[in-house]
Amino acid sequence: MIELKDVSKTFTLHNQGSAVIEVINDVSLSVAKGECVALTGASGAGKSTLMRMIYGNYLTQAGEIRIGGVDLVQAEPREVIALRREVLGYVSQFLRVVPRVPTMEVVAEPMRAVGVSVKDAEARAKKLLSQLNIPERLWSLSPTTFSGGEQQRVNIARGFAHEYPAMLLDEPTASLDAANREVVLSLIEEAKARGAAIIGIFHDEAARDRVCDREIDVSAFTPKMAA
Amino acid sequence: MTPLLSVQGVTKHYGRHIGCADVSFDLYPGEVMGIVGESGSGKSTLLNCMAGHLAPDSGQVVFDTRTDGPRDTVTMSEPERRMLGRTDWAFVHQHARDGLRMGVSAGGNVGERLMAVGERHYGDIRDKATDWLQRVEIDAERVDDRPTTFSGGMQQRLQIARNLVTGPRLVFMDEPTGGLDVSVQARLLDLLRGLVRDLGLSAIIVTHDLAVVRLLADRLMVMKSGRVVEAGLTDQVLDDPQHAYSQLLVSSVLQV
Amino acid sequence: MSESAYNFAYLDEQTKRMIRRAILKGLAIPGYQVPFASREMPMPYGWGTGGVQVSAAVLTPEDTFKVIDQGADDTTNAVSIRTFFERTADVETTTETSAASVIQTRHRIPEEPLTEDQILVYQVPIPEPLRFLEPRESETRKMHSLEEYGLMHVKLYEDISRHGHIATSYAYPVKVEGRYVMDPSPIPKFDNPKLGQMAAVQLFGAGREQRIYALPPYTDVVSLDFDDHPFEASKADQVCGLCGAEDSYLDEVIIDDQGGRLFCCSDTDYCTSRRAAGHQGPAFPGSEVAA
Question: In terms of domain of life, where is this protein from (chain A) (predicted)?
Fold first, then answer.
């Protein structure tokens, strides 16, 4: 489902003497349907960078990143947008929303974007929000005013709202209490069970051991670390 | 898929000075594109060339018309272009005063485009105007008030209602949130986002506010000295800018 | 210097030719505003300088001339213009509508139907019907040339939203031959239906604004309106106190210090000829019989 072939990336810092920094060198990996792969490596090894490349958020200089048949490296912006809408989900560590939009709509939006009716989208949004223990009185408020933990849970609800065939998870269990951590892990298991291909970054080793089938050490691809 | 708007090699000079040079891109239905750059970078010139307010020196602006398919709007006759301007196109000015008739009631402002395309039933026109006022969160009771009695944010929302009432397919926006309070901006952005999604609009937004494009635009073009220096997915350009100028632009934003 | 030292009808022949060319162009494109080089006239702007120049250009020594101001032959403006042409053109003048070959008017159309042998010359203060909503001349010209008249209905829309009905009661905009929107000069909208299919030639002159426009005989003229607020030619719901006419446009006149009022025909010739024919209104001495 997710396939990387000889993928490399450099950053060129034009405003700092045009320094060129190689960050990822020659990565090849593939993730099958129903499989969950963990990216590991020390902090700064390039886990998040690689993840952002797979999402199309960072530009990839060389190689191929194929997700559901689309090569992200060559794709037009609109193809990437369509891919993100329908196929590729991303749960980042931070919630980024338009101010003033109620939590309910924030969570329902990914489903509305793929044509789910308001009624069905809201029903699923309610289910996820209750599962993640967001009190019902907060649903009509904008999450911008919520606590960090609450925002994180809203973010997860939004990320799992549409059943993406491929998902990227950046520390989904960070800063969650035991009960909510358990909910998130079961959401990941459900996603795997329905056939989603998942790549994740987990600092929480117990969580990693429970949901991940394989680990890939990113340090192996980062010349900077090797040097 | 046919692009809704296909811009090819658009160039505009002001004497020896470059307004914009050799700009090309395709905009597809439902896409929202942001154009960023500092003052004088040519983004407003480009917008005005695309919207038919300025005649480019060279280049094509091909619009996929409802009746005749793709047509170059630069070479089409002025009546046809003006007809597009009040049916399939909308233009939201930075200053609401430039886009509104300040001496005409809110209802008359919204109704003008309807009357311009031949609607002749007062009751229907008024109902549609009232409906649109509510869609942009203006109390229906204000329908007979003049925009001079409205706040800046309301005027901007009225301008948007006036533009969208005829169901355009492409909206040009020139700094739509410029000059508004931050809280009013947020409300307007939310409204625009909802309208763009619900109506399936395509839009081109010129702004110098990177936060605005991050929230509204799928794609981004960065302009400097009249030329496009970088284009791509909005979040990619903002998070991993490739060109020296884009890097400078992104790193110049104060983090809140 | 005696009046005879002036050229016939005051203006020099070259100027009259220039005005006639503008008139012919106006007749060829009904409702279109033709720019012309308006001259200084020996009267202030607003007193009918446009109408006077048009009259001067169309008058011949054989014509019989009539001038009305708000329907009346005996008001200052009418009397001065009539005298002006009596002295500079030595033409016959009359107050009788049917006897006149050229009628210059300010703000009225005579009640008596005009004929193919007559010319009606209007004095126009502001020829541009779109002016109040669009101040830019360049833009209004473009709107005319591209037939973009949505704005005209915005004006009527504003009327209804403010007053519940179209309150514009004079200078009511019309569309000519399905093409140009035209300001009929400040005639009451009661007169609007007479504009269309009129047998006489209608010429409009705006001196200060330097525009001439025209309606040739038997031109289609439609007053703008909404489907659900149709045009209505309205007048005071009274009869003429003097002649009893029910079909003429009425002026309301205060007749004493107690606020007593009288409605009477604004068209003085119409009223006089009706009374001469024996008609009497309710205000006429001994009118109980007639009422």
Answer: Bacteria
